[in-house]
Design goal:
This protein is α/β, with parallel strands linked by helices and 257 residues long. It is built from ten helices and ten strands. The longest helix has 16 residues. The structure holds adenosine-5'-triphosphate and magnesium ion.
Length: 257
């Protein structure tokens, strides 16, 4: 059984069709990338999977159960996390406090103070472990709003993995980073998502070809191929609609070296 399964999912905004009969499977532990031109519908697909939007038609199953139409908090609780936008960090809380909130949140609001106090030690240990995994120990007391861009993105990734999600959705995780920041972010993503499935949208083909086990190509709202990186690279249709220009420009060498 696939961890995530989309069957003929379609979406439209008003009369504009944005996704047409998209079928996709993500296996447990797999890194699956979604690539395609601007406006192909990649972010919309993420909004549908994470429950920000409801598909016009089609089915989305996670771990064998339908999730389309569920509110986003319920989908998150079932084990799908997406990287938060920067505005969703608590900017005045420190890095450690942000992680603490992310760890407490899955316990629910019904969690009593006594229960919380009993778990204080375990909670602190998990915050420490996350800080170490993210390489943010030195910044633990810094308010999230004062972090540099790459550190903010690392903290967002930390919030996404704090809740033990089985599937992480990352939409353009290295956008806006320099070559060296992107390389560090890539190593971090690989490390902290090692045991989980990752669904990744990214325009930087060097990142995609390095991380992905399989790639799905979307163009104008339709899946035109799902395959291994090597076969995607060699696919004439994919080259025609997307890779022709991008691979030559990006996958061949560093961007700003
Ligand atoms: N809320 C909305 N209302 C109307 N149209 C929308 C809305 N959100 C997205 N669209 C349109 O849907 C299409 C797909 O957008 P989407 O953001 O999913 O593309 P994308 O593949 O993520 O593109 P990019 O690579 O530029 O991020 C675009 O034509 C976009 O203009
Ligand atoms: Mg997008």
């Amino acid at each position: 059984m696939s961890l995530l399964r989309l069957d003929r999912v379609s979406m439209q905004f008003g009369r504009t069709r944005v996704l047409q009969d998209v079928s996709l499977r993500v296996e447990a532990g797999e890194c699956h990338a979604i690539i395609g031109p601007n406006g192909a519908g990649k972010s919309t697909l993420f909004h549908l999977i994470s429950g920000l939007l409801t598909p016009a038609s089609g089915r989305i199953e996670f771990a064998g159960e339908p999730i389309h139409g569920l509110p986003s908090e319920q989908i998150a609780r079932r084990g799908i996390a997406r990287s938060f936008q920067i505005s969703q960090l608590f900017p005045r809380l420190s890095v450690a406090e942000n992680l603490r909130c992310a760890l407490l949140w899955p316990m629910g609001y019904g969690c009593s103070l006594r229960h919380l106090l009993g778990r204080e030690k375990a909670l602190n240990a998990r915050v420490d472990a996350l800080l170490e995994a993210l390489g943010l120990q030195a910044l633990r007391e810094v308010p999230a709003g004062e972090l540099a861009y790459a550190a903010q993105r690392a903290l967002e990734l930390g919030l996404a993995i704090a809740g033990d999600a089985r599937l992480i959705l990352l939409d353009e995780p290295v956008a806006g980073m320099s070559h060296s920041e992107a390389a560090a972010a890539l190593a971090l993503i690989r490390r902290v998502t090692a045991e989980r499935a990752l669904l990744l949208v990214e325009h930087d083909m060097s990142v995609v070809f390095e991380l992905a086990d399989r790639i799905t190509v979307l163009a104008q709202g339709e899946v035109i191929a799902t395959d291994t990186p090597a076969r995607i690279r060699a696919n004439p249709r994919v080259q025609e609609v997307y890779l022709g220009s991008t691979v030559a420009a990006e996958a061949g060498g560093p961007r700003d070296a």
